[in-house]
């Protein structure tokens, strides 16, 4: 459900006036993760450390007023106005749906395979009413019979790559998963997003639960039921030949036949869908002479959801799935650095 | 959308008072197809010909008043009261959700494999306030890791079998498809429902279209776009390895990249889902040393929807898919006959 209003709130204890004043002397970059339903703003020092964070519900489909009436400016001012007042020269970068056709300005997709240089070359600038220039990172498009697009995830992926140049930035092929509404799985090699796949797992789960007969018998359990979840994963893996349209009906029929309680049905359905996602991913990896089994892969996203995926991945022989934290703010910093918006080596230039 | 009220309407021109009076002298059976959102009543003569039909929106989840307040009696009286007043001794049979746990009385599922005798043995009776006894046909349950249930379709299947005893009632294995909200595919042999599968294709399509991002860019075309539909079927068949959770996103990305118009997107998505259903069916048939290719199969259901399936089936090598009409009323008649409620040979006994 869409929230009735939108408001900015501090999510970081350092983000009070006194601390912010002190921090702003060291401000080197403002970065925005601006999606459909939310806006997160990060203030960095010249070392790339986050000094302050602000979060609001001013996503591009949830602006405080319409785009024609300056909604983007209003949301930006609300999130970053106080910072910019004291540090007006700080560069600003943004990633996510803000660069879509429905965003502030469209930053056309760059084609996969895409490395950080390609993202930088695709940056589009927009001037805010307050005088600041936003540098908007483009999304990535993979062409084909089943085209794929991402906006925001490309920046998170480069954030995850930036963490460990030895394993992932090398020539070795790496797999990065981004569970969520539209889950992404990207194959990365030599610092490039080679190809990726989208699974509408999160959104389909919500639609099935809220708008089909399956939800009618479901009761949310007090705590997640890992047994029911794993049962769903295994059914999708071992008995999923008929496809998801067939297996999901079992959430109802196992209930009708007394084999699955109402409280178990949500986690069972979640396991079924994530199991079908991973089985589908395994099928396309197999075509690429690759496999989930034995992979050392990385997950980016909500911790509880990534934990579900980690558990499900073990059922596909993948026991090394590492959760990458702070991929978004690291990625924004990395792209800004690559674009020359900040120079991490010249900290003193910014510290005064 | 649920209709605000419920009302009974005549759908057959013979169903006016004068014609009904004349017909009722020959009445031999009342049969009800009583589902979740609708109730259809058929009046037969002793030859099994339908004399009159009535239809209402008084499905078991849409009764004129609650079940506790006599909602089932009220709906039954509304549909059949006029008939029963003049022919109170006419037997009554009913199939569908009226026999579910939420129905008038529960008629427990009979196990697959199930023939017409098994259905008859599972009939449960309930006495209506008006004095009539309803004979409620049970549904069929197939046990297993992915249990399957049907209620109403079993009667339609026997209706389709009754049509042609040479081809389908023989020992030859036959495949019958019932497209719809929860599409069913049944393997029938020697007059028995051997096994069946359920695909939530219709309900998932509606949920995706109405409650996910995919619907936002869709515009209903003036007429169905068979080209877009077939494109979806072929993608599911040839490029569907990643599964439906992945392929459906292409309804959006093909739009974003200018390869699929807004008007084409609904039929493309329909083709994708029906294509995944048939690919999944083909996978389970293969496990049973069977195949869609070369099948002479039958379809029961809405004509326009069955036509979609017929077109899609040709993409799987199945060019003989015959639409069976009036399967519901034929099936109800057949089960009633088998149960001894009517005796087609003794027409004169009922004609007076």
TrEMBL record, chains A, B:
Pfam families: DGOK. This is 2-dehydro-3-deoxygalactonokinase. It comes from Paraburkholderia solitsugae.
């Amino acid at each position: 459900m869409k929230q009735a209003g939108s408001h900015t709130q501090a999510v970081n204890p350092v983000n009070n006036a006194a601390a912010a004043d002190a921090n702003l002397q060291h401000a080197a970059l403002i970065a925005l993760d601006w999606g459909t339903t939310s806006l997160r703003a990060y203030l960095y020092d010249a070392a790339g450390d986050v000094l302050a964070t602000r979060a609001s519900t001013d996503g591009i489909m949830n602006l405080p007023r319409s785009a024609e009436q300056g909604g983007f400016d209003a949301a930006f001012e609300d999130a970053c106005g106080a910072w910019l007042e004291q540090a007006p020269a700080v560069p600003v970068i943004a990633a996510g749906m803000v660069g879509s056709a429905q965003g502030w300005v469209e930053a056309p997709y760059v084609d996969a395979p895409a490395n950080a240089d390609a993202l930088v070359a695709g940056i589009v600038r927009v001037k805010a009413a307050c005088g600041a220039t936003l540098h908007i990172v483009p999304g990535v498009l993979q062409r084909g019979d089943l085209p794929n697009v991402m906006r925001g995830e490309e920046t998170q992926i480069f954030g995850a790559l930036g963490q460990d140049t030895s394993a992932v930035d090398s020539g070795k092929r790496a797999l990065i998963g981004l569970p969520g509404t539209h889950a992404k799985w990207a194959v990365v090699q030599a610092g490039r997003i080679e190809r990726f796949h989208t699974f509408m797992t999160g959104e389909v789960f919500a639609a099935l639960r809220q708008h089909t007969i399956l939800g009618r018998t479901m009761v949310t359990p007090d705590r997640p039921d890992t047994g029911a979840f794993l049962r769903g994963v295994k059914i999708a893996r071992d008995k999923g030949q008929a496809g998801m349209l067939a297996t999901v009906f079992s959430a109802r029929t196992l209930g009708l036949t007394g084999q699955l309680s109402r409280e178990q049905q949500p986690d069972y359905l979640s396991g079924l869908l994530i199991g079908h996602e991973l089985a589908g991913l395994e099928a396309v990896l197999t075509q690429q002479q690759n496999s989930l089994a034995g992979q050392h892969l990385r997950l980016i996203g909500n911790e509880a959801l990534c934990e579900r995926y980690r558990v499900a991945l073990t059922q596909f022989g993948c026991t090394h799935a590492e959760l990458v934290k702070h991929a978004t703010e690291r990625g924004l910093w990395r792209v800004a650095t690559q674009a020359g918006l900040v120079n991490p080596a010249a900290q003193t230039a910014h510290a005064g």
